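User: Can you predict the 3D structure for this chain?
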Amino acid sequence: VHGHAIYNNALYYQRVGRNIVVKYHFETGISKALFIENSWYYERMYLFSTSKSYFSIAVDENGLWVMYLSRPDEHIMVAEVDEETFSVLRHINTTYPQSKAGNAFVAGGVLYITDKNHMHVAFAFDLLREKQLDARFELKLSLSLEGFEQKVSPGSNATLV
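Assistant: Here is the predicted structure, written as structure tokens:
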């Protein structure tokens, strides 16, 4: 889980104790704040039980994504963020319960969520089409993103089951 990301010469991170993502632009030194509504950001309601982060910030070829835990239903939500205007384009409810999630990452516009043991991708959700995908596979070693082919594949000496 990554509570921060660097994208297009800016650092994105969650402001401690707030449901705000900050964009700090390295060249200008200017900071901007983005409010993420209806998100848990206190009372140790972390996005994933194995981390101490309330938000996870991801970047792929489609842009900037902020994963967070929704209040009050505790589903994993994703905010698609326009990095130029630094505004939320839309909030996407994956309907996946936080209680089942171990970790997550975004690649090719798809959110992949692992089980609590980090042994399987238990859930995949197409963020661009806002629909669940059938993509359950075991993690043997590592995964790599094949950028040109826009697919997730096993890393060296790994297999997908």
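Residues 38-138 form one domain. The longest strand covers residues 87-97.
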